[in-house]
């Protein structure tokens, strides 16, 4: 390891030196603990009796070799403080850990990962020099691994956490269920909430004790590697949530690791986060190398296709509050973190979950930005849900909540998210948020999703949203799959499945997401009617998206469809008709529009570029513009 780079925050592979690593016989154990008075390794290999470690290099690092140690054995570091009191800690660089509530690290060798799994990743990630995800629409399914599906009571396992079911599926078991579902439902990317080891199920993985340890809840590191490879073989990319802001307060973890605040701030005013955890002190080079190495580990060893960094605004500003000023040390950490990862993994997607308006989040570092590839558009999410929660008579005043996003959209490269954060803690599910009675909620949710998928930007939807789920997400229970026995939910699921497939197969809906020429407003001042219309373009393909978000029917809505002028042609033929691609108000989805050859809405003629449409209440439609 380059010790100077480690101290200056530029060491991306500290995990190859620190932690437990094979020796000629047994394993070496190494840790970084400058303030410790002495350290011993305790574990299965020595009957949990102390094997002393000795100082190496500059005295801040500790090492010992234990010939009896082998893969699968548990261990901890017993760290003595200057007052001679001691605490048993798991290994900060440990590669595997016991299942909670136990907390020991487990000896494991990353070299045991399959070469076949590696080749599957190489094949998927090498596509014209870029990740396969770069050259296609990106439709992300956000997943909590333990609550998508759970084993029935008839198949119990050791992970039982509820009287209602038989516990978690393993990494390998879930692959057989999840991958066909993703393909059938039109998702080409999976975003998994944090898989690094964490002590509390209720934290959903966002308060971590093992930053290099795949959680043992769902199996072994090898099984996780097989799961990722199976996704790659089926053309599905995988992004993992990465938590660079804070860590769990459990005393066996990073907290007060060597008897001092080694990883966290020493003062509670900035050291304690709003979630009751410890904030990393990003001005310390050792911390920056720790986090950089963890990111490289997940991308390099397990071949995740990208990382979504959680709570980036809490890095940009002190405690996430712009009024407290910028955290310059953390901002520099982000720039170094992203630029170093891009040098090593140019195909990786780096995504910021950032609720602030800080400029340049997706601008390259060399242009003064933070260097992310994408940023979650939380403004779009908030404005959209606020609009649809409002009764129709208030939507006249709120009309421009749905046009405002295009005022700033080209400032960053955005992903449009309806994530797990929107369906918990009393916020209600996406379907519940829709105004009105039971039937109206389905009509509006279908129209809203049609609006979302026509809007520029990549897409992210949390599991269960596609079912029209009515119960808030609970990490202890699987999704309410039985609701698909109800016709309205089944029809809604069919709508989402077909919308997803159209999105993937229609270049105009995604190819020019971040180019102004890919989007053209056709009607954005119909405030009194709550009607919106725009065109999406890519190459020769033109798609009209039109929406009526009022509770009124408009039988003769007139819209002008312009000719397609391009840089190559001074003049273009006038469009001649509109062919219906998908309608949220179709009867097979739960609406009232029959799709039959004699239905005038399936093929709308244009006269002098003018179309006359009949729009149902709470509906959205896509038309292919033909010339």
In short:
This protein has about 625 residues and is α/β, with parallel strands linked by helices. Helices cover about 25% and strands about 25% of the residues.
Key phrases:
single chain; 627 residues; alpha/beta; 14 helices; 29 strands; elongated
Describe it for me?
The protein is built from 14 helices and 29 strands. The protein is of the alpha/beta class. The strands form seven sheets. Strands 10-11-14-17-18-19-20-21 form an eight-stranded parallel barrel. The protein has a six-stranded antiparallel beta sheet with strand order 22-23-24-29-26-27. Strands 3, 4, 7, 8 and 9 form a five-stranded antiparallel beta sheet that branches. It is elongated and about 85 Å long. The mean pLDDT is 93.
Layout of SSEs?
Blueprint: H1 3-7, E1 19-22, E2 27-32, E3 38-43, E4 51-52, E5 54-56, E6 61-66, E7 74-80, E8 86-89, E9 105-106, H2 115-125, E10 139-143, H3 171-185, E11 189-192, E12 196-197, E13 210-214, H4 221-233, E14 237-242, E15 246-247, H5 268-271, E16 278-279, H6 285-300, E17 306-309, H7 313-316, H8 328-344, E18 349-352, E19 374-376, H9 378-389, H10 392-395, H11 405-408, E20 414-418, H12 430-433, H13 438-454, E21 458-462, H14 487-505, E22 519-526, E23 531-538, E24 541-548, E25 554-560, E26 577-583, E27 603-605, E28 610-615, E29 619-626
Helix pairs in contact: 2-4, 3-4, 6-8, 13-14
Taking the alpha carbons of the first and last residues, their distance comes to 63 Å
**Average of the residue pLDDT scores:** 93
Strand order of the largest sheet: 10-11-14-17-18-19-20-21
Largest sheet: 8 strands, parallel, barrel
Count the DSSP helices.
Answer: 14
Backbone shape: elongated
């Amino acid at each position: 390891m380059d010790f100077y780079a480690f101290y200056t925050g530029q060491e991306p592979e500290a995990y190859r030196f620190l932690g437990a690593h094979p020796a000629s016989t047994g394993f070496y154990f190494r840790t970084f603990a400058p303030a410790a008075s002495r350290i011993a390794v305790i574990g299965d290999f020595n009957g949990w009796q102390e094997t002393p470690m000795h100082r190496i290099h500059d005295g801040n690092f500790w090492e010992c070799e234990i010939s009896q140690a082998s893969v699968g054995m548990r261990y901890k570091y017993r760290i003595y403080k200057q007052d001679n009191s001691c605490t048993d800690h798991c290994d900060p660089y440990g590669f595997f850990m016991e299942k909670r509530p136990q907390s020991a690290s487990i000896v494991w060798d990353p070299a045991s990962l399959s070469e076949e799994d590696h080749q599957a990743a190489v094949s998927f990630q090498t596509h014209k020099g870029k990740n396969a995800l770069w050259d296609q629409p990106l439709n992300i399914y956000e997943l909590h691994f333990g609550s998508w599906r759970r084993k029935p009571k008839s198949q119990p396992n050791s992970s039982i956490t509820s009287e209602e079911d038989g516990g978690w599926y393993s990494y390998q078991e879930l692959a057989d269920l999840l991958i066909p579902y993703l393909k059938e439902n039109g998702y080409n990317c999976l975003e998994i909430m944090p898989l690094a080891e964490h002590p509390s199920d209720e934290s959903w993985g966002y308060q971590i004790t093992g930053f290099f340890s795949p959680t043992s809840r769902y199996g072994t590191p090898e099984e996780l590697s097989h799961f990722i490879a199976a996704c790659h073989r089926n053309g599905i990319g995988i992004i993992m949530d990465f938590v660079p802001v804070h860590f769990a307060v459990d005393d066996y973890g990073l907290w007060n690791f060597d008897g001092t605040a080694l990883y966290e701030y020493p003062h509670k005013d900035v050291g304690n986060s709003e979630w009751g955890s410890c904030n990393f002190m990003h001005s310390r080079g050792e911390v920056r190398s720790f986090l950089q190495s963890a990111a490289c580990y997940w991308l390099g060893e397990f071949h995740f296709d990208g990382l979504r960094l959680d709570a980036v605004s809490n890095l940009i500003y002190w405690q996430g509050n712009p009024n407290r000023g910028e955290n310059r040390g953390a901002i520099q950490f982000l720039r170094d973190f992203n630029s170093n990862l891009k040098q090593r993994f140019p195909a990786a997607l780096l995504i910021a979950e950032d609720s602030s308006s800080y400029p340049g989040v997706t601008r390259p570092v060399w242009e003064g930005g933070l260097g992310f590839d994408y940023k979650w558009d939380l403004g779009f999410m908030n404005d959209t849900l606020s609009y649809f929660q409002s009764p129709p008579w208030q939507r006249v005043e709120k009309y421009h909540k749905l046009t405002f996003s295009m005022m700033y959209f080209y400032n960053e490269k955005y992903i449009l998210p309806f994530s797990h954060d929107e369906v918990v803690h009393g916020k209600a599910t996406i379907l519940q948020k829709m105004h009105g009675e039971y039937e109206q909620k389905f009509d509006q949710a279908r129209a809203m999703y049609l609006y979302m998928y026509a809007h520029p930007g990549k897409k992210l939807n949390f599991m269960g949203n596609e079912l029209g789920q009515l119960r808030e997400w609970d990490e202890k229970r699987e999704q309410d799959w039985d609701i698909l026995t109800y016709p309205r939910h089944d029809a809604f699921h069919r709508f989402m499945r077909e919308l997803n497939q159209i999105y993937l197969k229609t270049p105009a809906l995604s190819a020019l997401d971040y180019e102004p020429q890919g989007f053209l407003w056709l009607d954005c001042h119909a405030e009194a009617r709550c009607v919106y219309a725009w065109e999406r373009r890519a190459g020769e393909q033109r798609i009209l998206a039109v929406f009526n978000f009022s509770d009124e029917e408009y039988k003769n809505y007139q819209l002008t469809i312009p000719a397609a002028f391009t840089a190559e042609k001074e003049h273009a033929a006038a469009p001649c008709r509109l062919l219906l691609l998908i309608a949220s108000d179709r009867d097979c989805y739960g609406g009232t529009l029959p799709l039959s050859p004699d239905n005038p809405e399936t093929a709308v003629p244009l006269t002098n570029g003018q179309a006359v449409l009949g729009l149902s209440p709470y509906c959205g439609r896509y038309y292919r513009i033909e010339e």
